[in-house]
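Progress narrative, Year 2. Work on Glucosamine-6-phosphate deaminase from Marinomonas primoryensis advanced from sequence curation to structure prediction during this period.
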Amino acid sequence: MQVIILPTPNDVAQYAANSVVDVVTENTNSILGLATGSTPIALYDELVSRCRAGLLSFKNTKTFNLDEYIGISECHEQSYRAFMNRHLFNLVDINSANTYVPLADSLDPEVLARNAKAYESEIERSGGIDLQILGIGVNGHIGFNEPTSSFASRTRIKTLSKSTVEANKRFFTKGEFQPHLAITMGIGTILESRAILLMATGKGKAQAVKDMIEGPLTSMCPASVLQQHKKSIVILDEEAASLLSLKEYYLWCEEKRQQLHEGNLL
Ligand code: PGA
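Result:
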């Protein structure tokens, strides 16, 4: 696991944007895994600016989002399809037919289960995800894989934890129906991505970040599974990194990595 600690959330977004640009320009047919939530918004803003400046094109890129709420329509402004349209898809040159978000607008469990299975097949048919962007929940979830989710899980219907429902309350108006079910990529699905980039910012994430990087491998902190991925990069701001015991070591590693990159081995 590569741990990168940067001064501010904006630095985190810039670093993540550079990584996305590298993947998309190296292979114009690349497959991206995308996340919603407040953390990646700054990344999407940056990608939109670079695309508008002609520095980047998503013309042949395919994207798969991690998850979607069950119980609200795609047109609801809090659906993750609407989120992605608003923050990225409608603002760049991507072909909307190449943007996938789990289809969760049915209330029939059989249809939802079928949609989840079809999502897995579509990822597989596309050749798998080159770079998966992740955030982390305060309870250590990735996607909507809540604590105790199996590390072998695939795209499926998942019940949200009370803490996740609470954390997302701010996006719904008082008295409005708030989803407590979702279709989410599984942890097994996420782990098949060729590279994973997890972004975390702010003090509120510091404990989850510590559990993910320095805690035991446990389904109580689903993100800890990234310790087992061959190419996982965690990008943190100072606040999210504030509880890490080996913080100085991670900073030192990055310094050395930079020197190696410049051919300065000693
Ligand atoms: P956030 O959510 O970026 O809004 O904090 C992250 C997550 O729950 O995965």
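The mean pLDDT is 97. The pocket of 2-phosphoglycolic acid is lined by residues 37-39, 135-137 (CB under 6 Å).
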